[in-house]
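Appendix C: a fully annotated inverse folding record. The material below is reproduced so that readers can follow the format used throughout the book. The structure is listed first as tokens, followed by the designed sequence.
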């Protein structure tokens, strides 16, 4: 995945210090950076996130946006103060207008300001997606604007990979998988990010991966955990059969099993109960403590 570099000046503006301070921190190893062939310091957003996680006092100085206008300054303050209700409204409006940049600033800014990833997804993204869907179903939102909004949210979710800090301590390996014929992969990406942020290595196989391939993956990689997502079930009987097989394979490998998504309301679950149902991303995070 391509990651965009930022300069020492841009990094100093985000953290709220002068550029000489950033350069000094980088030279002392207090903030990570990449050194170009020409000797220039280049930073990634995840370097900023890691620094702020270790030096929380600088979060109050954050400058997420360029501050070219009063509106941007006000939005920056909402982000720093984590004013989620107001930010959810702004995020929704920006998404249906196709304003990826504002949505991107809000998500990244909340993460940099210290809001946990699962809180961002439960309290900002999930409500915004619900509002988008309800507005479309009621006829208040044209279908093309619903598509635009959904694509904006998807891009912002994928953009979070560039910001996530890299925990030094690895907690294990988790597999994320969606049931066959379920094309909704956003929950899998969010689950992957939360696990990654907490220190797990993650293999996200998506949906429609043949069970034979999954069995080989389990045997070769020896994962600790399995997360199965289901949003929509078109064929309950087929979904139940796949779930039973996945459940059996995971138990053979002594894996912890977690199920999440509305689709599981329409299928019969394994009877032995050796799994945990998750109804929110915050519940997912609780399993990692």
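Designed amino acids, in order:
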């Amino acid at each position: 995945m391509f990651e965009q570099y930022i300069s020492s000046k841009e990094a100093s503006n985000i953290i709220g210090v002068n550029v000489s301070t950033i350069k000094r921190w980088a030279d002392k190893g207090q903030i990570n950076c990449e050194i170009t062939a020409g000797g220039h310091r280049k930073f990634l957003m995840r370097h900023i996130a890691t620094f702020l996680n270790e030096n929380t006092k600088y979060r109050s100085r954050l400058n997420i946006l360029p501050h070219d206008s009063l509106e941007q300054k006000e939005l920056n303050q909402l982000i720093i103060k984590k004013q989620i209700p107001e930010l959810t409204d702004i995020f929704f409006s920006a998404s249906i207008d196709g304003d990826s940049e504002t949505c991107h600033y809000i998500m990244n800014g909340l993460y940099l300001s210290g809001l946990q990833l699962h809180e961002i997804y439960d309290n900002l993204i999930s409500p915004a997606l619900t509002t988008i869907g309800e507005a479309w179903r009621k006829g208040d939102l044209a279908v093309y604007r619903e598509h635009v909004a959904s694509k904006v949210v998807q891009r912002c979710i994928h953009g979070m990979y560039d910001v996530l800090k890299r925990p030094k301590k690895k907690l294990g390996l988790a597999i994320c998988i969606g049931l066959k014929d379920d094309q909704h992969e956003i929950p899998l990406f969010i689950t992957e990010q939360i696990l990654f942020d907490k220190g797990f290595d993650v293999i996200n196989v998506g949906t429609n991966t043949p069970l034979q391939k999954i069995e080989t993956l389990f045997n070769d990689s020896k994962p600790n955990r399995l997360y199965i997502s289901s949003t929509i079930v078109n064929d309950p009987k087929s979904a139940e059969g796949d779930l039973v097989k996945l459940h059996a394979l995971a138990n053979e490998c002594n894996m912890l099993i977690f199920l999440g998504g509305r689709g599981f309301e329409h299928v019969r679950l394994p009877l032995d109960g050796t799994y945990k149902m998750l109804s929110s991303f915050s519940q997912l995070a609780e399993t990692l403590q």
